[in-house]
Amino acid sequence: MMINAKNLVKRYVLGGQTVHALDHVDVQIAEREMVAIRGPSGSGKTTLMNILGCLDRTDEGSYELAGEDVSRMTSDQLAVIRNRRIGFVFQTFNLLPRMSALENVELPLLYAANSGAHKQAKAALELVGLGDRTHHEPNQLSGGQRQRVAIARAIVTDPSILLADEPTGALDTKTGEEILTLFKELNAQGRTIIVVTHDPKVAAHCQREFYLQDGRIAQDDAVFQSAKGSK
Amino acid sequence: MLIWITLKSALKSLIANKLRSILAMLGIIIGVGAVIAMLAIGNGAQKQVLGQITAMGTNLLVVRPGQRGTGGVISGTQQNLTVEDAQSLRDIEGIEAVSPVVGGSAQVKYLATNTRSNVQGVAPTYFKIRSFELDRGRFFSESEAENMGRVAVIGPVTEQTLFAGGDGVGETVKLEGINFLVIGVLKSKGDQGFFNPDDQVLIPYTTAMKNVFGLTFLREIDIQGTDDKALAKIETAVSEILRKRHRQKPDDQDDFQIRNQAEIMEAASTAIMTFTILLGSVAGISLLVGGIGIMNIMLVTVTERTREIGVRKAIGAKNRDILRQFLIESIIMTGLGGSIGALGGVGAAMLVRTLTSFPAMVTMSSVFLALGFSAAVGVFFGFYPAYRAAQLDPIEALRYE
Q: Residues of B numbered 338-367 whose beta carbons fall under 8 angstroms of chain A's beta carbons: which are they?
């Protein structure tokens, strides 16, 4: 099991009232799965993504990522986990300005003090089809190309999971489709991918979907999707 | 993260905001430049004043008549120092030389050229005591002094005035109507402001007292000690002898005063040091203000780059990586500003030196002090913004618009 999270709870106090952003949620995701987390805004899907991405900690319950209990780690330990085990892809790409595509992709490796950064970053860019754009800065690239750079940055450390938050939200339909195709290729190569989205069409590209509502999993159609996937 | 890459990216972000970085650095540039220039001026003043005091003579004690008067009302000086007083001091241990000094202003004439100059009657030892050197000719001798020789040694300015560029040695000048043979011309010592040692006529004290001024009392007795440590001892011995000779009762106030060159030097040094510290601290405050400017800009930078900080944290930057990144940026700013300021300060000191005769002097220690202080300012004022950046919550930071 790549992700084994049990009983996740996240509470916020808003105006004297306690709000359950996550209300006892269990998530199990197997290796090589491509999963969608879907739900309307306010459903807790962003909170869930933050916890699964080790940006945040659960108030209760436990979370094992690739066999490692990460629910009680310090913020520095979580930084290492994010660096090695998780690749983030954001809706607005979040590339650093004034740095070339190559430098952006190298960055996670530099935080890991990896000596072969250059080669690995180049390979990652080639994998997303941007081998010829390594020295372009983000503002010289199109939206789709920027998202590809961001994906290269996410996979460069060879993480256990790839976590994408509305990865097509800032792209036109055609480019969005291309990005989703790229995700499916990466998935076919053996990467575990979680896509957070509100869009059923995006979710339809995945093998399985969690539907969140009011901080609970309203529907986990794993059986249906995997049945479809095995056809 | 490798330090070199952090450095490179810090430089890049400073270059991306050129004007802002330069303006923030300006405070440090001015601060460091001011500290260095001010300390250079202080050092120069020290050197100049001590040089003037040393030019007056080495290991010098000057005995002058005491001031007459009671209850703070001073009504002129007493006339009580005699040639015998001066002679009685010769045998004190540690004394190198003694010279009686009389003098005043007198008319000096050469052919049709007429000037008023400072005429001093002295013993031959005076030249050594007051560190005079000859440009040409010779000093007068002991026997010339004792036998009321009519010989004179003149300063270079006096020579210029009287002989208009010609050689004065061997010529005869008239002092108050009496003929004197010029036997020597002094080397220049430079104007000392209150008194110009280059414009004077030195003649034997005997001649001066008897023939020129008609005096029986001395203006001062100049004493040279063997070394500066002996001066305090000599001072006590001189005081004892003079009190005895002047038949003063034990509780009488001294009817003379002794000035000790070592003490004058120390007093001047202390005064200039105070003045240097004052200048330096004013400049130091401007450095501090510069540091606050850096902090201000760094806080703005951190706020502006909140999202970047979030991204960096999401891809695995630890708090200390972020802290280091922003700290390095502020250290680069103060370091660079400090270096430019140091160059500016040295340049300003050199400009003062060339444009005026003031010997502004930059010392290595003041440059290191200013640079060290500016680096410390960078760390100190850079730390808080960097710490704030490091403590940002990655989720909040990523959501920041």
A: none
